[in-house]
Each structure stands twice: as C-alpha cells, then as structure tokens.
Amino acid sequence: MSGHSKWATIKHAKGLADAKRGKIFTKFIKEISIAARMGGGDPNSNPRLRTVIIKARAANMPKDNIERAIKKGTGEDGGAAYEEYLYEGYAPGGVAVMVEVLSDNKNRAAADVKNIFAKNGGNLGTSGSVSRMFQRKGTIELDAEKVNEDEVMEVALEAGADDIVNEDGIITVTTTPDAFSGVAEALQEKGFETLSADVGMVPDAYTPVDKDTASKVQRLIDRLEDNDDVQNVYHTAEYPDDFEPEA
After folding, report:
1. Which Gene3D superfamilies does the record associate with it (predicted)?
2. Does residue 245 belong to any structural domain of this protein?
3. 89 plus 111 within the same structural domain
C-alpha cells in the first residue's frame, strides 16, 4: 500500500471515528463560518466556501446545519469569531506534524497544542519547519466495490483531476486545490457516492515507523484531534501494514 493511500485511508478512518463522536460537524461549522466570513455566503462566488460545503456533504452533514454555519459566518446569526492558526512540530520517531487550528482564543489554542505535544513525546517547531515537506492537494475517495473505476477515471480526468489510484478497495482521486470543487461536483453529478472529499496537506515523502513508534504517533494525533480548537492534523508517518490503531 503506497504512502498516499495510507494517508488517505487513515484520514478516512479517523473521519469516521470523529463522526461517531459527533465532532466532525462541529469542525465543519467552524470551517464553513470562517470561509463565509472571509469570502461571503454565496458558494458560487466563494471557492473556499464551496469546497468546504462539498466536504461537509460528503460527510453527510445536514443542509440546515450548513446554512446555519454560513449565516453565523456572515454575521446573520451571531456567534464567535474564529481565526486560523498553524502549528508545526515533530511526533516520536521524527515524524513531521502539521496542526491546523480554528479558534476564538489564540492563547488557549497555542497552550493546548504545545501541552499535547509535550505530554505525548513530541515537540513544537518553528514556523516553516515542516510545512515545506507537504503540498496542499485535493483527495476524493470512493468505494471500489460500488463504482466503476473506468467511469470514475473518465469523469475525473475530464473534470481536471491529476491522478486516480485504486488500492485496497479504495479509489483515490487526486486534484490540485483549484480543481477540487469541479472534480468533486462532476463525480456527484454522475451519481458517484464518495467516502470522503477533502483538501489537505499531503507529504512529499513519508517516515517509516515500527509498531511501537506508530502507537506513540497515533496517540499524539488522537490527542490533538480530540481538542475542540484543532481542525486538521497532517503527518508523515508510514505505519506498518499490520498496525492497528487503538479504538
């Protein structure tokens, strides 16, 4: 299984876990709100908002929740003003980690992230220390047993996708951030059901770790993702094929 497929699979599995805890919708609400605040509430003229809405729909977020989040961002519905922050550091084993935060309290968020790194064998780095190891890309995942790979490939490439990979039962469509919305919408219009749709940071290279280190890395990732201010966590760890994260 390739590094990119591992990244996509881990992100998808973690996304499902977040949904069970009821946290993923809260994260989308914040992301939609800040996108609407920065670029307006019309997704047709706000590419960032349109992208987040596509991601939220892929996670089965109700339409009413999306509309309320937009109103909160445009000021029609009040609510806290969120700001974006980025933290970079290292997990055990020299694994690079990027943490995207949306918070209404910078001091609280910074202290929490620093504390989580320190208590779980990691350490924060300076700005730019690990971000150079990642590229922002769009990824769309589909269940290979429920869709026709050739049809997906035809639609995705025509809409501007960069690559399509079928591994371990998951078809992963990769795009540039600018092409993501168009490709995701083209697949939706053709009736393809997506497992996930996201624009995130994908590592240029991965750091292989053994099972013991993988457990430590995943523990740090879990603690970060459990924090209400943390929006996304990206890392370069390549876990052993037989590694099973703790439930």
Report:
1. 1.10.10.200, 3.30.70.980
2. no
3. yes
